[in-house]
Design a protein that fits this description.
- The chain has 484 residues and is an alpha/beta fold.
- The chain is 27% helix and 18% strand.
- Strand 12 and strand 13 form a beta hairpin.
- The N and C termini lie far apart (55 Å).
């Protein structure tokens, strides 16, 4: 049987609970819901480093954030072999439409070709979306003509004709590729949308729809006052927010409107997709959207780190591989698992250098050989610390090295993380287990996270880029203050 085509759809900053058909979700996504219900849905999927560049480097390389080299947005080339590179070697025609967000700009990283733009704004190298706007008589950075920040909490309807929207442009370019591709070889098409990342500017229909909706109450944990709060939400690009701020209704309406807009554009793709095509859907990270007084990402909380991830297979292919269709999988998985999974599905060799694991066993109803996933970010704004976290999808442990503070959440009974049970007497045994698991993950690291088998409180955030000295464990970052 000929190898299947692959359509990999990626959104930016889409929460794991922001899909139609999920309990409590206010967003309508009929096409994505149809795909998810027909495929294998990983309900405990996470972004290990929930920030754009490290998340995408992790996905492209199949390596942990630490091993691919960045623990925050940082512009260095990715020196690992990539998924599109290996697929190109296997005679796939690989093409990108939309956002890549890797450095240097315009480097193809294994794509045979690209309609590239990292968003509706300018870049060092003129991007293809800007060129498209200029060809239609619009001015440079017309995509930001509404005046909104691309990291801010202010939202509004799209200011140009809908056909000029970045989401529509990505879809149009994908449709052009499907029409003009080489029909003698299979394709790997990555359609990478910029939204629902801000600026949240869906076309007017979608914005008004969610402005009129009664949206779910914003969760606010009983622990929130224990973390430093140096921002009250006044700056446009704030990280902390007053949940009663009237701007939050518009921000959430714009956010959900962007997702439904993307869903309808995905519907256009589905009508043109060849039958023998695997569809993969994921996001690079989530968005706090006001949860616990936070917006944006970087944190380990569900809004930020939990992402959607599902695979949809042609019937004959699924039967041949023993894959169960229309099922939900509870194993904790991560973006680095996508690359080895795709290679395994295609019977291609998986490089030994990869940290991710193939999810094919889970698709067959078998257990995965991993108890939990580990995530981290070098810097969280407003609290003078980075974060480390572990989760198996049922329990989550968070450690803030700059604060010397830990949190523990029972995700099965408290999915919105309303209660930090790290101080509960009946949770101390569980807390000690997860703490030691993190010690094992971090032992020997150059930042000095662990000493004498215990977690160490540091003096603040750690480095954004992992150099070779840190990898070898011989570069200290902060002085020891106290232990956990």
């Amino acid at each position: 049987m000929e190898r299947p085509n692959i359509l990999f759809i990626m959104t930016d900053e889409q929460r794991g609970d922001a899909l139609g058909g999920l309990p409590g979700s206010p967003v309508d996504t009929p096409y994505l819901e149809e795909l998810r219900n027909a495929g294998v849905d990983f309900r405990s999927a996470y972004s290990a480093c929930p920030v754009c560049i490290p998340a995408r480097r992790t996905l492209m390389s199949g390596k942990t954030p630490y091993h691919q080299g960045t623990l925050m947005n940082y512009n260095i080339p990715l020196d690992s072999v990539t998924l599109p590179e290996l697929l190109k070697q296997a005679n796939y025609q690989t093409h990108l439409c939309g956002k890549l967000h890797l450095f240097p700009e315009r480097k193809l990283y294994g794509f045979c070709s690209a309609d590239w733009s990292d968003g509706p704004y300018g870049s060092a190298a003129e991007n293809d979306y800007e060129r498209y706007l200029k060809e239609h008589g619009l001015f440079r950075e017309a995509g930001l003509g509404h005046g909104l920040s691309y990291n801010g909490k202010i939202a509004r309807p799209w200011h140009l004709e809908e056909r000029y929207h970045f989401t529509n442009w990505c879809t149009e370019k994908a449709l052009e590729f499907l029409e003009r591709r080489d029909p003698s070889v299979p394709f790997f098409l990555n359609v990478s949308y910029h939204q629902p990342h801000s600026p949240c500017t869906p076309p007017q229909y979608y914005f008004e729809k969610y402005m009129k909706k009664v949206l779910p109450e914003i969760p606010y944990g009983d622990w929130e006052g224990e973390l430093p709060n140096t921002q009250t939400g006044m700056p446009v690009n704030a990280w902390r927010i007053d949940v009663s701020d009237p701007a939050m209704q518009g921000y959430r309406a714009g956010y959900y409107g962007c997702i439904e807009h993307i869903d309808h554009q995905i519907g256009r793709l589905m009508y043109k997709l060849p039958e023998n095509t695997i569809v993969i859907f994921a996001s690079d990270h989530g968005e706090m959207l006001g949860d616990h007084g936070w917006v944006r990402k970087r944190s380990a909380y569900e809004g930020s780190a939990h992402i959607p991830l599902f695979f949809v297979f042609p019937k004959e292919f699924a039967e041949r591989k023993g894959i169960k269709r229309g099922v939900s999988v509870s194993h904790a998985v991560e973006l680095m698992d996508i690359m080895p999974t795709v290679l395994d599905l295609l019977d291609l060799d998986i490089p030994e250098t990869l940290d991710g694991i193939s999810l094919l066993p889970a698709m067959r109803g078998e257990a995965l050989k991993r108890e939990y996933i580990h995530g981290e970010c070098a810097r969280m704004e407003t609290i003078n610390s980075g974060m480390q976290y572990l989760t198996d999808g049922k329990v989550k442990y968070i450690w803030y090295p700059g604060l010397g503070k830990e949190q523990l959440f029972d995700l099965e009974n408290d999915p919105h993380e309303l209660h930090d049970c790290s101080g509960d007497l009946d949770c101390q045994e569980m807390l000690a287990l997860w703490r030691q698991r993190l010690v094992k993950e971090l032992e020997g690291r150059g930042e000095g996270f662990v000493s004498n088998g215990r977690l160490v409180k540091l003096n603040g955030p750690t480095r954004l880029c992992v150099d070779e000295g840190q990898k070898n464990g011989d570069v200290g970052i902060s002085n020891t203050v106290s232990f956990f």
